[in-house]
Amino acid sequence: MRHPDQDAQLDLDLNRPSGPAAIELQDDLEGDTLREECGVFGIYGHPDAAAITALGLHALQHRGQEAAGIVSYDGSRFHSERRLGLVGDTFSRREVIDRLPGTMAVGHVRYSTTGATILRNVQPLFAELNAGGLAVAHNGNLTNGLTLRRELVKSGAMMQSTTDTEVILHLVARSRRSRFIERYIDALREIEGAYALVSLTNKKLVGARDPRGIRPLVLGDLDGCPILTSETCALDIIGARFVRDIEPGEVIVFDENGQDIHKPFPPMAPRPCIFEYIYFSRPDSIVHGRSVYEVRKAFGAQLARESHVPVDVVVPVPDSGVPAAVGYSQHSGVPFELGIIRNHYVGRTFIQPTQAIRESGVRMKHSANRAAIEGKRIILIDDSLVRGTTSKKIVRMMRDAGAKEVHFRLASPPILYPDYYGIDLPDRGGLLAATHSLEEMREIIGADSLAFLSIDGMYRAMGEPGRDPANPKFSDHCFTGAYPTHLTDQTQTEQQPRQLSLLAEAS
Fold this sequence. Notes:
Layout: H1 19-30, E1 38-44, H2 49-59, E2 67-73, E3 78-84, H3 87-90, H4 94-98, E4 104-110, E5 125-129, E6 132-142, H5 145-154, H6 165-174, H7 180-190, E7 193-200, E8 205-209, E9 218-222, E10 225-229, H8 233-236, E11 241-245, E12 251-255, E13 258-262, H9 275-280, E14 286-287, E15 290-291, H10 292-307, E16 313-316, H11 322-332, E17 340-342, H12 355-359, H13 361-365, E18 366-368, H14 370-373, E19 377-382, H15 389-400, E20 405-410, H16 432-435, H17 438-445, E21 449-452, H18 455-461, H19 477-480, H20 488-491
Parallel strand pairs: 16-19, 19-20, 20-21
Antiparallel strand pairs: 1-4, 1-10, 2-3, 2-4, 5-6, 6-7, 7-8, 8-12, 9-10, 9-11, 12-13, 14-15, 17-18
Helix pairs in contact: 5-6, 6-7, 10-11, 10-18
């Protein structure tokens, strides 16, 4: 399964600054950023399965930048390459792809939501079961994963990672059904929360989506070979054809006999995650039949309808605020200007966590374009606000560059509640909007005015008449507190640690 040179790779990412100084620096650079989830990719029956999977993961890199992995099967053996870092750090090398032979492969890009960023948590996870090998790549988060894990450990299971995905492997292994797909479905019946799964056996490629459809999963076709992946942009990069979305609660299987579909759950009203449109998905992706780019423009136009003030220019906070700023500008008639230039090459490995660097951290990532904003009334457009630290620094940067007025607009409602489905948000006490009034937030950020997109306005921008509290069309719990599934781990009387025990290894 594992190439020998991986044994020498540290489980801990020793290149990054560590300790309180590193945490403060990270907050400075990414304080208002929603952390990405994960991306999955799988292909069946193609002679260049691993190379195509690597390209697909490259297109999904925005969904997770901490680690990447691919598992392939060549007809007799499974092969695995799982590494910390970006896809291009490992999978752009020919010798790595050559170590992944076979016509079937699954891949994963990761941002950790449960379990630290260590090599043993990098997916796809693999286990040898009595029926053969099983590799699983998972986007999402199980809301009963810790509870199930505790039960499995009590019954004798030995866990090798600290990620909730490993629970799925143990549940499949524990099932007493005779056929693999029945065992797989048995496992799905025990888990709750959000998941889009792409799994590989020695005969099958399997995709599964949670009954509410919280996490996305699409089906594509490349020269007759089926592909399962998180977003349509991963199909575009390899020239594959989009076929359809995998339906909520659907389990789809590809093998030598073709395609087989299972629907083991009672029908439920879909509740896809609204943050796929606000932040996570790439603008060129189509999610549930909607162009992400056009939706984000519509958010901006609706924001202009709700909270416009007289200004001279509309300035996006790059990069996620750009489409909404375009929509705001088009609707309001106020010129769009790139008043902030983003440095795409800022890394953490070379940054020394000194006080001077921490104070200038946001300027390393964003720079003011003085020519576009000096002496002008500007309106800043961003996608969302989490802690407010970066927003405060950007407002100050605009004033330092000569802006006469700085108004701040968010193309989503205030984030009031934590997420348990794969978005790494702080607890409620760490969410600025949950602990401060609008006026208090405005004062903290230092803007002349502050406004968020309304919840009904967000729904109208999605083509809905507004939010129906009895039947919301999306998972919007971060704004409303209306969680779409049970939260078993959160309701346990026995304390459930977010980070489980961990053995730090060194070579």
